[in-house]
Amino acid sequence: MSYSNLSKTFKYVNQNGNTLVFDHDHGYLINKPRGIDSVSVSIEQAQGINQTGGTVQSCNVQPRPVSISGILMGDFQAENKDKLISVIRPDIPGRLYANDLYLDVRPTATPAVSAASTFANFQFSVLAPYPYWKKDDSVSETLSGVTPRFKFPWNVSKPYRFGEVVRKQFININNRGQVPVPFSVTFTALDGVTNPKITDAKSGKFLLIKKTLAAGERLEVRITHERTYVESSVDGECRGALALTSNLFRLDVGDNVLKPEAESGLNSLKVAIDFSTEIVGVTV
After folding, report:
1. Phi and psi at residue 85, in whole multiples of 5°?
2. Residue 168 and residue 181: Cα distance in Å, rounded?
3. What per-residue confidence (pLDDT) applies to 111?
4. Rounded to an integer, what distance in angstroms lies between the CA atom of residue 268 and that of residue 118?
5. Using one digit for the tens of pLDDT, what is the confidence trace for 72-122?
6. Are 104 and 128 spatial neighbours (Cβ–Cβ below 8 Å)?
7. pLDDT value at position 263?
8. Rounded to whole angstroms, how far apart are CA atoms 279 and 275?
9. Other CB atoms closer than 10 Å to residue 124's CB: what's the count?
10. Rounded to an integer, what distance in angstroms lies between the CA atom of residue 10 and that of residue 97?
11. Helix (H) or strand (E) segment spanning residue 122
């Protein structure tokens, strides 16, 4: 097997924060990881009597298996062997990074490392239950409220503003990724607010909180690929406040025109949206 320089730096970070960087400077030289660029799709079909071909009934993207193989470089062969075993552990989940993109993964076995004292070979595999790569920085947009404007460096000879009051009937949230993504929405009440809500103007989908927010209360709805969390700075966990009729749980690819609403107190409501873009695969 030949090993070559890659256009992206790969690293593995386990849940405890222990990190392996797979590049020459850190003593690991790897080939292109298998499974980073493509995903498998399970397609179920049906075929009627005398039908030519078939009819697709369902199409499901499968978890992504990734395998990495390489050789150990440099003067710390024994130490780097031990680090592979101690960091990549099947009992601890982790993240596999390609530059600023990552997969949430679980190792399927401890790394296999050869007994050679120099240029030892190693190999390990991980499984990403959710197969799309996520970008390791979130995008934040303010729908209403106060947007920070003060920045350093500060030129004292010029006028400045600490913030700007934003009152927008609609705002366009642009998802520049390749797939619809979950998001977090934070409702902050500057004064009393009843039943805060955001609505997608294009689809009509909405997310509604059936609750009166007290002055100063902050309520976050955090949507993940596994479940939805609702937490209030006053009442703690309050998932029951999320209306069962809510159906806005993803931001579509491209433009998402969202409208902040409330039964009362809209002018006292600050709404912020946070999300991370996702892509189908990475190339090197």
Report:
1. -70, -35
2. 23
3. 95
4. 66
5. 998 899 999 999 999 999 999 999 999 999 999 999 988 999 999 899 999
6. yes
7. 96
8. 13
9. 21
10. 5
11. strand 121-128
